[in-house]
Structure formats: structure tokens, C-alpha cells
Amino acid sequence: MNDRLPPDVSPIVNESGIAIQPLYTEDDLAASGGLSMLGLPGEFPFTRGIHPLMFRKQPWTMRQYTGFGNAADTNARFKYLIANGQTGLNVAFDLPTQCGLDSDDPLAEGEVGRVGMAIDTLRDFEIAFDGIDLDRITVSLTVNGSAAILIAMYLAMAERRGFDVKKLRGTAQNDILKEFVGRGTWIFPVDASVRLVGDTIEYCAEHAPKYSPVSVCGYHIRESGANPAQEMAYAFAIACAYADEVLRRGVPIDEFAGRLSFNFNIFGNLFEQVAKFRAGRGLWAQIVKERYGATRPGSMWMRMIAGGGGGGLTFEQPELNIVRGAYYALISALSGAQTMALCCYDEAYTIPSEYAQRISLRTMQLLIEEMGLCDTVDPLGGSFYVETLTNQMRAEMARIIADVDARGGIVGLIASGSIQSQVSAQAYRRQLDLEAGRFRKVGVNCYRGDAEDPKVEFHPYDEAGTVDQVARLADVRRTRDASAVARALDDVRRAAADRVNAMPAIVSAVKAYASVGEITSALVSVVGRYREPVRFEG
Amino acid sequence: MNTTARTRPIKVVLAKPGLDGHDQGAKVVVRALMAAGMEVIYTGLRQTPEAVARIALEEDVDVIALSSMAGSHLAFCRRLKPLLDEAGLDDKLWIIGGNLPRQDHDALRGLGFKGVFPTGSRLDEITGFIERNLP
User: Fold this and answer.
1) In chain A, what are the domain boundaries?
2) Domain range summary for chain B, segments of one domain joined by +
């Protein structure tokens, strides 16, 4: 590697460990495997994009992560974003909701409505989506541990409002395995959690076939310390674990693989990220076709939200995050994302203000309207550098997946804490490198400037909002049919104990206005709770 | 740096309070403290104030450290302080790090958290602070 480098030029290795040459030619491309995986957009292996015309036909969906306080507060912000041209919703839930706790639970004290919207029962969902056309605006639910319950609530709410669930589009994050690696809103033990994800996929394949019940997230694994190749490789290994769980139940691959989607991060070196996404599309298509024998092209599509970028934004000089966000959005657009969201400039400090959200939204709109990003599919395709790097990134991802398989598979490696220990060791080394200046971060370890108060408006936390939320929950408990709730919760427990699909029982419980906490407790009483392994190997 | 010889390594409990699941920073700090020769008990996620006080007491630690990223730091510390006082742990070094807005730093210090390390703090600032501030 770097064999052409003169002695006075330093070698460069990207985050994924690939040496970067000062110039790429057809020789480098040929040595990396040539253009055998390139093909055309809309055709296997989809390296150039999953659709023939991509953004020329329809730009990416714009879906900022939003939610705070109660359902009414969040409904108002949803409507603000839609009025400003946003084309999807990405719902943030508070931590009690994400951890399966009701707002009146002692463990929820001080956390109700703080980092997202508080949801206890279907009543809250009815308020949250009031007046929003769910056929026109697709909704993504960012929830994992309690995802089965929140998916059930979403489907029940849509059905009651008269939408045809068979045609309903939308996404739930519902990727519990990554939650054990980063983000941490787990509830149930690993095996029971994977089974529950399988329940949602199997249920949606039959009852809501256009709905995407899982968005597998390399995103948070990257935020926890993984490099870009690991981010994507681990996500694919996790997606395979869910696919294996559903295949075991006898559902054919082509009946559900097309509704699996992905969530990836966009910070870091521009070319490395673009190559990552192009490489990932080809590799996922190969896996679904060759390992699982899928025949429908849609089953092989790596559909993704490529967004966020939180790990690249800085607390220091936060206004620079507006500029970083614009470059991250460019990466996402050059990479053929289906959906985009951008972390806001103030997000290292607080829940984003309307002002900050609008800047992020306008950043994406500016790329669409002014910069020509939608004119031509895969505009970097054919570059010696990008194609060579795409081949090298694909090979590195395949190597990591083979290594995971050789070590017993991703579920075991996560259950034992091995992946967690590995990525946290990398995060530690990265922090030491940052502090030692071995890589440069503007405003952090170079160009620091004078410390001044950042121009950030802090989102107020409404303590009184908790009282209202708890009162609404109490009102629901008082007015619902208590015996119907008790029967429904019994059914949830029985389904878990019998190891049959728990979704029908959860849907019935939700419709009877059982709460997130009550349904979670019913499941915990049968399958137990996760215990976190703590390991700190080098 | 403390010049008197210690009879044992500095012992730290590092806790993740409340429901916040963002543990990348906490785990990085654990590794930095271990690299500085300290013994670290990392609690994992979802600790209640009662659990933090109990672990600190049972483990006979010198330092009680919290990592909070999701905004509930003041609410949590207000509940933790009387429990630590009651357990006779008011002579230990209490520190906190994470997503801590500047306007909250005085309130945290007022509650007894002598070291406040917002996002962007260097690891050697944290280890150095502990070494300087232990008797």
C-alpha cells in the first residue's frame, strides 16, 4: 500500500483501516476487483441505487427527529414541520415510553416528556397524530425496547381513523440488538427481545404488508465507537439474525425481506461514507439473494435513512454544526438515501428549537432545489477513487461479517458483551487520539478560538407537563373497560408463555387502552428482564 | 498530584443515573480512570439514587461519579444528595460529567458535586482532578 508515495508524503489510512492513495487510476480499480459489482441503478446488485431514476423521480423523504413534552406539544411541532415542507415524521419518545414505563412509575420521575414525547396509552397516540394525513406523511417511530407495543398503537390509531392498514406505510426502528450495543433502551433478555422483533415482522408481513417494522441501525453502533465498515457489517449481521428468526417460523424470505430497512450515520470522511453506502447496497443484495435465496428484487434492496451525524457534531462552536450538517446532507444525497434527517446545530446542548429544525430542513431543501443533487443518479459512479474504495469497503465489510459468523454469530457476541467491549475500546482510543491531536477536529483540538457563550436557546422542561400526563393516564384507567384490559393482558402473558406470536394479543390490549407499562409488565412477568454484562477488555 | 503514598488504589464508582442509555462517554471515562491506575466499579445503566448510594457505601469508594446525557441531572442529584449524606458519604469526592448546560454547574456544585465535567472535557482533566482532590 502507498507504494507510490514519495518519502516526504505521509500515508493516510481512513477510519475503516483502508490506505488512501494520492491518485487513483484504472490500475487501482482493476486491482480492487474492477466494475463487476457496479451494474445499473435499479438492477442487481444495486450498487448505484435501488431505483432506476432515484431522485429524478422523487427526492428523498425529509424526516427530522421530533418529539417532546406531551402528545399535544409534539402534534404542534409536527404540523409546523409539515407546513415548512417536511415530507415525513420521525417521532422521538421520552425515556419512560422507550423503556416500557408509564408516566406515573417512580422510575419515570424527572424523565416524563424530557427527551421525547410521553406516550402511555392509545389516547396519547390519537392526540399526537390528530389532523395528520397518514397516507401522505409517512411516520417513523424511533422506539426499540417497547416497539411491539408502539407499533400496535400506531396501527390501531390509523385503523380507527379510517386508514387502510393493508396500505399503510411507515417505519419503526425496532432494532433491539443494536440497543444492547449503544443507546440502551433494552427491556427484555436478548433471546426474548429477538423473538419479539420476529413477532412484529411476521405480524406486519400478514396484516400491514407495506409497513416497515424494523429499521436496522448501524447508526448507534457507529456512535458507540464502531468505524464505518463495522457500522454496516454489524447492521447486516443483526438484520440476518432477525431474518433467521422469521425464517424459522416458516415465512418465506420474499414475504418480509423487502420491508426490512436500515438506518446509517453520515459523519466522517465524505468519500469513505459514500463508498460505504454504495458498497453496502451491493453486499446486502448479495446476502439476501445468495444466503437466503430471495428472488424478488425488492427483497434485495438496502433501503435506508442516511442521516443524523450526531457523533460528528461538536459542543464547541456549535454554529459550525450548521456547516457540518450541510456536508453530511451532501454525503447522504450522493449516496442515494431514501430518507434523510439531520442532527441540528444545537442538538449537542438541547432539544432542537424550531429555528434549528428549520435550518436543517432548509439545508436538505437547498440541495434539492439549488444544487442539482437530484438531476442524475449516482453522480460519483465511475470515479476511479470512489469505485476502488467501494470495492475495498465491501471487502472489509464482508471480512467483518465472516469474522462475526466464525465467532458464533452476532446474537451471542452481543449477549456476552463482546461487541460492546470492542467498540468502547475503540471509542476510548479515538478520544485519546483526539486529545493528542492525531486527527483534527475543528473547534475542538484546532482553531479553538475564544470561549464564548454559544448562541443556543435551551428547550424548557415543563415539570407541570408530567402532572397533566399522569392525570390523563389516570383518566384513561378510570374510563376504560377494566375487565377487557385484564383479559387482554392475560392473553399477552399467555402468548409469551406459549411462545406464540404476541402481536395479536398486544394489539388487542392496546385497543382496550392498556398502557405501555402494563403491557411491558405482562411480558416481563413471563420472559424476565435483561441484565447488562459489563466488560472492559482492551 | 497527591504526594503521600496510598495504601490502595483510588476506588471509584461510576454510575449511569436514571433511564439515559448513552453510555459511550461513561465507558470511555471508565477506561481512562483504569489507565490512571484507579479501581472502577461501573454500575451499568438505569441506576436509581438509592442504588448509587448503596453501591458507594458497600464498595467503600473514594469517588462517586455520575454520567448524565439526557437532561435529568439536577432532578437526579437532588434526590441523591440526601441519600449520600445519610449514608455518611459526604466526605467522599462527588463528581459528574456529561451533557451539563453551563447554567446548571453552580447548582450541581451547590449540591456537593465538586467536579463538573461537561461534554468536551479532557480525560486527563478528570483523572487529574480526582488525584488532586482526594485527601
Assistant:
1) 19-56+134-436
2) 11-133
- Cα distances from A107 to residues A94, A103, A518, B86, in angstroms, run 13, 9, 14, 21
Distance CA A137, CA B39 (A): 52
Residue whose cell numbers read 454489524: A234
Render pLDDT for A259-302 as a digit per residue (tens, 0 to 9). 999 999 999 999 999 999 999 999 999 999 999 999 999 999 99
CATH 2.40.160.20 is the classification of domain A19-56+134-436:
no
**Phi, psi of A449, rounded to the nearest 5 degrees:** 70, -175
Q: Cβ of A458 and B119 within 8 Å?
A: no
Q: What CATH number has the domain spanning B11-133?
A: 3.40.50.280
Set of chain A residues whose Cβ sits within 8 Å of the Cβ of B20: 95, 184
A211: three-class secondary structure by DSSP: strand
Rounded to a whole number, what is the distance in Å from the CA of A196 to chain B's nearest CA? 21
Query: How many inter-chain contacts (A to B, CB under 8 Å) are there?
Result: 90
- The string of DSSP letters for chain B reads ---SPPSS--EEEEE-BTT----HHHHHHHHHHHHTT-EEEE--S-B-HHHHHHHHHHHT-SEEEEEE-SS-HHHHHHHHHHHHHHTT-TTSEEEEEES--GGGHHHHHHTT--EEEETT--HHHHHHHHHHH--
Whether this model's ipTM surpasses 0.90 comes out as yes
Sign of CA dihedral A407, A413, A416, A419: positive
- The DSSP code sequence of B1-13 is ---SPPSS--EEE
Q: For residue B117, what is its C-alpha cell?
A: 465535567
* Angle, alpha carbons A367-A172-A358 (nearest 5°): 30
Distance CA A188, CA A177 (A): 11
Contact between A148 and A196 (Cβ < 8 Å):
yes
CA-only gyration radius of chain A, Å? 23
Decide: B92 and B63 in contact? Cβ < 8 Å: yes
- % of chain A residues with pLDDT over 70: 99
CA nearest to A85, candidates A356, A359, A363, A365: A365
* Chain B 72-91, residues with CB within 8 Å of chain A CB atoms: 72, 75-76, 79
Model confidence, pTM: 0.96
